[in-house]
Write the structure tokens for this entry.
Amino acid sequence: MENFNFYSPTEFVFGQNRENEAGFYVKKYGGTKVLLHYGASSAKKSGLLDRVIQSLTKENISFVELGGVQPNPHDSLVYKGIELCRKENVDFILAIGGGSSIDSAKAIAIGVPYDGDFWDFYSGKSPKKALPIGTILTIAAAGSEGSGDSVITKEDGMLKRGTGGDCLRPKFSILNPQLTCTLPAYQTACGATDIMAHIFERYFTNTPEVEVTDRLCEGLLMTMIKETPRVIVDPNNYQARANIMWAGMVAHNNIVGVGREQDWNSHGIEHELSALYDCAHGAGLAVIMPAWMEFVMHHDVMRFAQVATRVWGCKMNFANPEVTAKEGIVRFRQFLKSIGMPINFAELGAKESDIPQLVKTFGIGDGTTGGFVHLSAKDIQSIYEIAAKATL
Amino acid sequence: MENFNFYSPTEFVFGQNRENEAGFYVKKYGGTKVLLHYGASSAKKSGLLDRVIQSLTKENISFVELGGVQPNPHDSLVYKGIELCRKENVDFILAIGGGSSIDSAKAIAIGVPYDGDFWDFYSGKSPKKALPIGTILTIAAAGSEGSGDSVITKEDGMLKRGTGGDCLRPKFSILNPQLTCTLPAYQTACGATDIMAHIFERYFTNTPEVEVTDRLCEGLLMTMIKETPRVIVDPNNYQARANIMWAGMVAHNNIVGVGREQDWNSHGIEHELSALYDCAHGAGLAVIMPAWMEFVMHHDVMRFAQVATRVWGCKMNFANPEVTAKEGIVRFRQFLKSIGMPINFAELGAKESDIPQLVKTFGIGDGTTGGFVHLSAKDIQSIYEIAAKATL
């Protein structure tokens, strides 16, 4: 295990009807003038926004609104939000939605007190100061409610880039599983895939002797494998939604990823897909991650055999562990298919002929990535090619 | 799953040589005059105290010392600490040691800004204000480094009582597994038993649909079962020590216990043993917890069968799940014995003839406890009796 710091100061407010306490928590964490930042009209239609506003009003907290966050949130709305917050003297940002709303809120939060262009932080600069933010989560997926990370797409060139820092960790996050019950099955499955990917990105490591985080990761994966099909069949299953929602936070606040080298290449490779096709991040991951697994499996067959036996319930083939390792990847793809995810380019709506462009935008040039297996441009191309043609 | 709040704002500073950063972190969290609070002479002899003082001096932080914390820390030293802090205008308490030093530090921290007797907080009052504390952990056991809990023994009557509140959560906790390598095998095993007990106290619940926390608890238990024997055989096994140390924190900051009714009766029943005999808390738990399991098993045989199969690797007896459930408890006791723990009163140094006194001090009267199974005084007596006579 490697040395590490772990810091997750967010107060998680979990359970039924908790969004009615939004005003209490904004006040608790010092907010007096709030930017309500959200995405599609669903927050309005469902009455969620009204309940939140009522809760703020009860605490005499004033607010301004900025809706319209898109999936794979764009920089143009971030600039608009920064301007609005400055003009209105906003001192607290409350994101209502999923990872996109939260990531957009985080970008605004670092942009407001910064003199330069907020994109600097998405080009390598470390954020040190931000407006405080809170979140009300409406989809279990990105884990942004418990992380210090944010991913934004720059419209000029459709560059999808991330940043991270402790100042971006929400002061509080309200997680009410009820709010996720109205999600269509496809979005629910995309979220579940994203959560599983966050675990796998941590799981595949070269760091030896990480039993505790291995076991925690495996526990989360088994939870997702049990609970996801239940909500696909029965979207109103509160208990399954609740288990998934907490798993989604734990999977990404990094308590199960500390002290180990992590990978994150599948996320990077997927980002090019969702940036180019504006597809759901989770759907892109469903296509990319098993392909990445096939490509890198021989780097550590026993780790793949371990997850196959411990998580997917495969019988260990002691004579030929590779058989078990491969079986685990097949089970993963079968699982993704069973919850309605695409497993190849055609099902995702991506084109094999775009692969050269995807590799180019990935921008690795003559270098390699870091992580479990360091990937060259050629390797990345191979992974896209495996993903393009994948079948069961 | 039930509604809950989860808040764990402590910064964990984990790994080799991290105690040399103590001064940096005290300063980061606003300390200018520190009380160094520790137990036995080992912190002095090992050079740990010198390294911490050097680190404070480097940051121009002044300090006073109060050593002498005993296992099952007493109220008398707490009063001394409160007086010293007030006299010296201490604004930060740094605990060096295990759960005892940390719990004693927490008691001092709530006592200093309080006009009345600090014992009020151990008699039902909720602490709302405390001096900030930091910890440098030297044994993986109590989990106090990541919790808002504290347990103190009142010398008058040898009453062992606890309190808890967010203001008692450490600002930072330095966890260097190297510092635990010099622990004798017995203390190491006591610590491991305490960690496993913290998990079981959360695991046995009447709350349905808690797959995510079940799986996380099981992952931690499997980690302890793998890693503990390794450090008993090889005390200097840094990696096994590291896995145990992180498991100890995760087991007790409650991230694996949220949203579910918890038990904690074994802890209560054990507290009477360690208060009366001044035995190690972990050793007392090794005697009590399997006895408690035998007593309550029929309340939910399938939950006991679940842990037996998922954690202890028993084969499920589908015709008679009780057989599997019992096998899990036997495996637990075998495990405790294998790491050198006592499994009955004689091995612990307790007397069967004291049972009426233990039950009386427990103080349940005509009522019952809460938790997984509500226990009457008669039930508690039965558990002590099972524990007294236990064999393999």
The longest helix of chain B spans residues 211-233. Chain B has 15 helices and eight strands. Chain B touches chain A through 43 residues (CB under 8 Å). The CA atoms of residues 359 and 380 of chain B lie 7 Å apart.
